[in-house]
Amino acid sequence: MPLVKAFLAIVIAIVIFPFSVTAQSDPDTLLQRVSDDIVARSVAADGVRFSYNMDTSVAGSKEYTVSLAYQPLADRATQWQVISPSFAENEEVYAQAKKQIDKDVEHKPDAKDDQALILREVPGNNAKELIFISEEDGIAKYAIQLTEGFMNPDGGDDKGMSKMLKYLKGEIAIDVASEQLLWFRIFAEKPFKPMAVAKIKKFDIKLHFAPAWHEGPIVQVRSESIVSGSALFQKFNEKSEITFSNFVQK
Questions:
Q1: Of 8 and 130, which is predicted with more confidence?
Q2: Which of 186, 180, 228, 229 is CA-nearest to residue 206?
Q3: Is pTM, for the whole model, over 0.90?
């Protein structure tokens, strides 16, 4: 019977050639689609301002948590407000947060902090520095060739970063199903000494991305960093996590 034969042919094809139904996506095409989407979203959001919350948690030599709220349409001096802790709850942390806010206002009077969160392009893609690594569990990974131009696009003379560059690797991850960038990571695979008086035991920084709102720009939603080692015979071990949330158009 034709229908039975057709059904058996489909079953045999699935059993004998299982990889045909889980074929990997073309990495170059996927990357281009993600890149085009990021650019299109940022262009569509040009001039759009938005409020958001920023929650910071730090552990290590100093341990504290602080929550801030950003309002873009307020006067620059009052755009940032400390939500917690209050002055009464933790005078030191509150004072440090206010001091940092005042410093940013003084040195960056025209800054638009909401715009700084918007991703304008895939990290490393502009200079064709991305190399496909693998696709596993629906996640495609690409290696970034870390060059001085990529790490320091403004062309400044950062000798410290130049010395560290050869010890670091970069990666990005893309969700294949949604075709969206998940994270960008810079890390060291093993301990290294960028200079004679310093040793970095662990270095790992990861930035996470997602749409700010439905069809909105791709923005940074979380950062995680772990840096440990010693410098001038003093050990250090710092771990921090910053979460950006509650994005609202204004």
A1: 130
A2: 186
A3: no
